[in-house]
Design a protein that fits this description.
Distance between the termini: 44 Å
Shape: elongated
Helix content: over 70%
Radius of gyration: 14 Å
Order of helices and strands: HHHH
Oligomer: single chain
Number of helices: 4
Number of strands: 0
Structural class: mainly alpha
Amino acid sequence: MLSKKYYNQLAEIFKFGYLDSYKTTYLENGNFDNNKIGSHIAEMQWKLIEFLKSDNPNFNEDKFIKAMNINLSKLKKELDS
C-alpha cells in the first residue's frame, strides 16, 4: 500500500501533465478545446485511480482528483500576457 506522500507525488505528476497539455493546446488552437493529450492523460488517470482504490480501500478519489485541478482562467491570463 502506498503512503500519502506517494499519492501526493502522483497527483503532482498528473497535474504537471495536464498543465503542459493545456498550455500546448492553447498555444496551438487559441483555446483549451480538443485537448487530445489531456484526454489521454485522463484515461491513464482513471486506470491509476482504479489501481489505487484496489490497493487501498481508504483511498480518497475525490481528494486525489482535486489535487490535479488546473485553474484554466488563471492559466489563460498567464498565456495571454
